[in-house]
Design brief:
It contains eleven helices and eight strands. The protein has about 240 residues and is of the alpha/beta class. The model has no long low-confidence stretch (mean pLDDT about 95).
Length: about 240
Protein backbone atom coordinates (compact mmCIF):
# COMPACT_ATOMS: atom_id res chain seq x y z
CA UNK A 1 0.00 0.00 0.00
CA UNK A 2 1.32 3.43 -0.97
CA UNK A 3 0.31 6.23 1.36
CA UNK A 4 -1.80 9.12 0.08
CA UNK A 5 -1.14 12.68 1.21
CA UNK A 6 -4.31 14.67 0.63
CA UNK A 7 -3.41 18.37 0.86
CA UNK A 8 -5.89 21.20 1.38
CA UNK A 9 -5.49 24.68 -0.04
CA UNK A 10 -7.27 27.17 2.17
CA UNK A 11 -6.89 30.03 -0.33
CA UNK A 12 -3.15 30.44 0.04
CA UNK A 13 -1.69 33.33 -1.99
CA UNK A 14 -0.32 31.98 -5.26
CA UNK A 15 3.30 32.96 -4.61
CA UNK A 16 3.31 30.88 -1.41
CA UNK A 17 1.29 28.09 -3.02
CA UNK A 18 3.79 27.88 -5.89
CA UNK A 19 6.74 27.74 -3.50
CA UNK A 20 5.30 24.78 -1.58
CA UNK A 21 4.16 22.86 -4.66
CA UNK A 22 7.43 23.34 -6.54
CA UNK A 23 9.47 22.32 -3.49
CA UNK A 24 7.40 19.39 -2.22
CA UNK A 25 5.38 18.13 -5.20
CA UNK A 26 6.72 14.59 -4.71
CA UNK A 27 4.87 14.41 -1.39
CA UNK A 28 1.50 15.64 -2.73
CA UNK A 29 -0.90 12.88 -3.80
CA UNK A 30 -3.99 15.01 -4.36
CA UNK A 31 -4.80 18.62 -3.57
CA UNK A 32 -8.24 19.78 -2.50
CA UNK A 33 -9.42 23.32 -3.06
CA UNK A 34 -11.14 23.70 0.29
CA UNK A 35 -14.86 24.42 0.61
CA UNK A 36 -16.08 26.42 -2.38
CA UNK A 37 -12.96 28.59 -2.46
CA UNK A 38 -12.26 28.08 -6.15
CA UNK A 39 -15.36 30.15 -6.99
CA UNK A 40 -13.94 33.24 -5.29
CA UNK A 41 -10.16 32.73 -5.39
CA UNK A 42 -8.81 35.17 -8.02
CA UNK A 43 -5.67 33.01 -8.34
CA UNK A 44 -7.41 29.67 -8.74
CA UNK A 45 -6.65 29.44 -12.46
CA UNK A 46 -2.91 29.82 -11.89
CA UNK A 47 -3.00 27.24 -9.10
CA UNK A 48 -4.86 24.69 -11.21
CA UNK A 49 -2.47 25.23 -14.11
CA UNK A 50 0.52 24.70 -11.80
CA UNK A 51 -0.91 21.44 -10.44
CA UNK A 52 -1.57 20.21 -13.97
CA UNK A 53 2.02 21.08 -14.87
CA UNK A 54 3.28 18.89 -12.01
CA UNK A 55 0.69 16.20 -12.83
CA UNK A 56 -0.83 16.51 -9.36
CA UNK A 57 -4.45 15.39 -9.03
CA UNK A 58 -6.85 17.98 -7.63
CA UNK A 59 -10.46 18.14 -6.53
CA UNK A 60 -12.95 20.71 -5.24
CA UNK A 61 -14.05 20.32 -1.64
CA UNK A 62 -17.21 18.44 -0.76
CA UNK A 63 -18.91 21.64 0.40
CA UNK A 64 -18.91 22.88 -3.20
CA UNK A 65 -20.85 19.78 -4.23
CA UNK A 66 -23.31 20.40 -1.38
CA UNK A 67 -23.67 24.03 -2.48
CA UNK A 68 -24.64 23.06 -6.04
CA UNK A 69 -26.88 20.25 -4.75
CA UNK A 70 -28.72 22.71 -2.53
CA UNK A 71 -29.08 25.05 -5.53
CA UNK A 72 -30.58 22.10 -7.45
CA UNK A 73 -27.99 22.66 -10.17
CA UNK A 74 -25.66 19.67 -10.36
CA UNK A 75 -25.45 20.15 -14.11
CA UNK A 76 -23.61 23.40 -13.46
CA UNK A 77 -21.35 21.53 -11.04
CA UNK A 78 -20.51 18.96 -13.69
CA UNK A 79 -19.84 21.74 -16.19
CA UNK A 80 -17.43 23.34 -13.73
CA UNK A 81 -15.59 20.06 -13.20
CA UNK A 82 -15.23 19.53 -16.94
CA UNK A 83 -14.27 23.14 -17.65
CA UNK A 84 -11.31 22.89 -15.28
CA UNK A 85 -10.40 19.33 -16.29
CA UNK A 86 -10.91 17.83 -12.84
CA UNK A 87 -10.47 14.06 -12.84
CA UNK A 88 -11.53 13.71 -9.19
CA UNK A 89 -14.48 14.95 -7.18
CA UNK A 90 -15.39 14.96 -3.50
CA UNK A 91 -18.98 14.25 -2.58
CA UNK A 92 -20.33 14.75 0.92
CA UNK A 93 -23.46 15.29 2.96
CA UNK A 94 -21.90 16.56 6.16
CA UNK A 95 -23.99 19.72 6.27
CA UNK A 96 -27.09 19.07 4.16
CA UNK A 97 -29.39 16.04 4.15
CA UNK A 98 -29.27 13.58 1.25
CA UNK A 99 -30.97 10.19 1.55
CA UNK A 100 -28.90 7.01 1.32
CA UNK A 101 -30.58 5.99 -1.93
CA UNK A 102 -30.03 9.33 -3.63
CA UNK A 103 -26.47 9.69 -2.34
CA UNK A 104 -25.60 6.19 -3.56
CA UNK A 105 -27.03 7.03 -6.98
CA UNK A 106 -25.03 10.27 -7.14
CA UNK A 107 -21.79 8.48 -6.31
CA UNK A 108 -22.54 5.90 -8.97
CA UNK A 109 -23.26 8.59 -11.56
CA UNK A 110 -20.15 10.66 -10.82
CA UNK A 111 -17.89 7.60 -10.63
CA UNK A 112 -18.54 6.98 -14.32
CA UNK A 113 -16.50 10.08 -15.16
CA UNK A 114 -14.45 10.92 -12.05
CA UNK A 115 -12.51 9.38 -9.20
CA UNK A 116 -14.92 9.86 -6.30
CA UNK A 117 -13.91 10.67 -2.75
CA UNK A 118 -16.94 10.28 -0.49
CA UNK A 119 -16.87 11.96 2.89
CA UNK A 120 -18.49 10.22 5.86
CA UNK A 121 -19.42 11.99 9.08
CA UNK A 122 -20.99 15.32 9.99
CA UNK A 123 -19.47 18.79 10.27
CA UNK A 124 -21.32 19.07 13.56
CA UNK A 125 -19.42 17.33 16.40
CA UNK A 126 -22.72 16.63 18.17
CA UNK A 127 -24.22 14.85 15.15
CA UNK A 128 -21.04 12.86 14.48
CA UNK A 129 -20.92 11.80 18.14
CA UNK A 130 -24.44 10.40 17.76
CA UNK A 131 -23.29 8.02 14.99
CA UNK A 132 -22.84 4.44 16.18
CA UNK A 133 -20.02 2.24 14.84
CA UNK A 134 -22.57 0.48 12.64
CA UNK A 135 -23.67 3.88 11.25
CA UNK A 136 -20.08 4.68 10.26
CA UNK A 137 -19.50 1.27 8.69
CA UNK A 138 -22.81 1.33 6.84
CA UNK A 139 -22.12 4.79 5.41
CA UNK A 140 -18.59 3.82 4.36
CA UNK A 141 -19.75 0.59 2.76
CA UNK A 142 -22.58 2.37 0.95
CA UNK A 143 -20.06 4.77 -0.61
CA UNK A 144 -17.62 2.04 -1.64
CA UNK A 145 -20.37 -0.18 -3.05
CA UNK A 146 -21.66 2.77 -5.10
CA UNK A 147 -18.27 3.32 -6.71
CA UNK A 148 -16.27 5.66 -4.46
CA UNK A 149 -12.53 4.97 -4.57
CA UNK A 150 -11.96 6.40 -1.10
CA UNK A 151 -14.10 7.17 1.91
CA UNK A 152 -12.95 10.28 3.75
CA UNK A 153 -13.53 10.18 7.50
CA UNK A 154 -14.58 13.62 8.68
CA UNK A 155 -12.43 15.65 11.08
CA UNK A 156 -12.90 19.12 9.56
CA UNK A 157 -9.98 21.49 8.98
CA UNK A 158 -9.59 21.94 12.73
CA UNK A 159 -9.60 18.30 13.84
CA UNK A 160 -12.64 18.87 16.09
CA UNK A 161 -15.44 16.73 14.62
CA UNK A 162 -16.19 13.36 13.09
CA UNK A 163 -13.48 10.93 14.19
CA UNK A 164 -12.64 13.26 17.09
CA UNK A 165 -15.37 13.77 19.69
CA UNK A 166 -16.59 17.12 20.98
CA UNK A 167 -14.10 16.91 23.88
CA UNK A 168 -11.17 16.44 21.50
CA UNK A 169 -10.75 12.70 22.15
CA UNK A 170 -9.82 10.59 19.10
CA UNK A 171 -12.31 7.74 18.62
CA UNK A 172 -9.65 5.03 18.47
CA UNK A 173 -11.89 1.98 19.13
CA UNK A 174 -14.24 3.14 16.36
CA UNK A 175 -11.38 3.64 13.89
CA UNK A 176 -9.84 0.26 14.64
CA UNK A 177 -13.20 -1.50 14.26
CA UNK A 178 -13.91 0.35 11.02
CA UNK A 179 -10.53 -0.48 9.47
CA UNK A 180 -10.81 -4.11 10.53
CA UNK A 181 -14.22 -4.25 8.84
CA UNK A 182 -13.72 -2.44 5.54
CA UNK A 183 -9.91 -2.41 5.20
CA UNK A 184 -7.32 0.35 5.29
CA UNK A 185 -6.56 1.01 1.64
CA UNK A 186 -9.88 2.68 0.83
CA UNK A 187 -9.95 4.89 3.94
CA UNK A 188 -8.66 8.46 3.99
CA UNK A 189 -8.49 9.96 7.48
CA UNK A 190 -8.81 13.73 7.75
CA UNK A 191 -5.92 14.65 10.02
CA UNK A 192 -5.18 18.38 9.93
CA UNK A 193 -3.30 18.52 13.26
CA UNK A 194 -0.04 16.85 14.27
CA UNK A 195 -1.46 14.94 17.24
CA UNK A 196 -4.02 13.22 15.01
CA UNK A 197 -1.47 12.54 12.27
CA UNK A 198 0.96 10.94 14.72
CA UNK A 199 -1.77 8.91 16.41
CA UNK A 200 -2.98 7.45 13.12
CA UNK A 201 0.55 6.64 11.95
CA UNK A 202 1.31 4.92 15.25
CA UNK A 203 -2.02 3.07 15.12
CA UNK A 204 -2.12 1.96 11.48
CA UNK A 205 1.44 2.35 10.18
CA UNK A 206 3.37 4.84 8.10
CA UNK A 207 1.36 4.14 4.91
CA UNK A 208 -1.97 5.29 6.32
CA UNK A 209 -3.84 7.73 4.03
CA UNK A 210 -4.08 11.18 5.61
CA UNK A 211 -6.08 14.20 4.45
CA UNK A 212 -6.75 17.89 5.02
CA UNK A 213 -3.00 18.40 5.41
CA UNK A 214 -1.98 22.05 5.17
CA UNK A 215 0.68 23.13 2.70
CA UNK A 216 2.87 24.10 5.64
CA UNK A 217 2.60 20.57 7.06
CA UNK A 218 3.67 18.65 3.95
CA UNK A 219 7.28 18.15 5.03
CA UNK A 220 6.54 17.81 8.78
CA UNK A 221 4.05 15.03 7.92
CA UNK A 222 6.65 13.26 5.80
CA UNK A 223 9.01 13.41 8.77
CA UNK A 224 6.31 11.77 10.92
CA UNK A 225 5.84 9.06 8.29
CA UNK A 226 9.58 8.34 8.26
CA UNK A 227 9.65 8.38 12.08
CA UNK A 228 12.03 11.33 12.14
CA UNK A 229 10.06 13.11 14.87
CA UNK A 230 9.63 12.14 18.49
CA UNK A 231 5.87 11.67 18.06
CA UNK A 232 6.42 8.55 15.90
CA UNK A 233 10.02 7.66 16.76
CA UNK A 234 9.03 6.07 20.09
CA UNK A 235 6.75 3.55 18.37
CA UNK A 236 9.54 2.70 15.96
CA UNK A 237 11.94 2.02 18.84
CA UNK A 238 9.40 -0.20 20.61
CA UNK A 239 8.91 -2.34 17.53
CA UNK A 240 12.62 -2.63 16.78
Amino acid sequence: MKSLNHIIDASTPYSIFKAYISSYSKYVGVLKFGWGSLLIDPEFEEKKRLLDQYKIKSTPGGTLFEYFYQQNDLNAFRDLLKRWNFCSVELSRGTITISDVEYSNLINQFSADFTVYSEVGFKSPELSDQMSPSDWIRSCQLSLDAGAEFVILEARESGTAGIVDKDGIIKTPLLTHLVNTIGLESVLFEAPVKALQAHLINLFGTDVNLGNISLQSILPLQALRQRLRSDTLETSLKSA
